[in-house]
Amino acid sequence: MERIGQKIYDSSSWRKLRQAYMASQHGLCERCGYPGDVVHHIEPITADNVNDPFVTFGWDNLELLCHACHNQEHNKIHLPVRDGFSFDKFGNLIETREF
């Protein structure tokens, strides 16, 4: 089964936009400053907006992230953690409650 937006990610337009956006950020993650490798959609592509070019190809909807920050972004949305724990900027699970 094809994921939503796969045709966009497979297009030459996306590849060109991705490269241009990475260059505009000097290849650095916008959150931690480490080398970035994922051009992330701030507003995720969904079945409802997959045909909206402001979402899919909008420069203002993009963010360059390293793999760890990208995982952290998706983990906070999709994999909630127990109270007293969170993810650090590298995506590692850490204890945050004070004793």
TrEMBL record:
The keyword Nuclease applies. Keywords: Endonuclease, Hydrolase, Nuclease. The keyword Hydrolase applies. Residues 16-71 form the HNH nuclease domain. InterPro entries: HNH (IPR002711), HNH_nuc (IPR003615). One of its GO terms (molecular function) is endonuclease activity. It comes from the Bacteria. This is 5-methylcytosine-specific restriction endonuclease McrA.
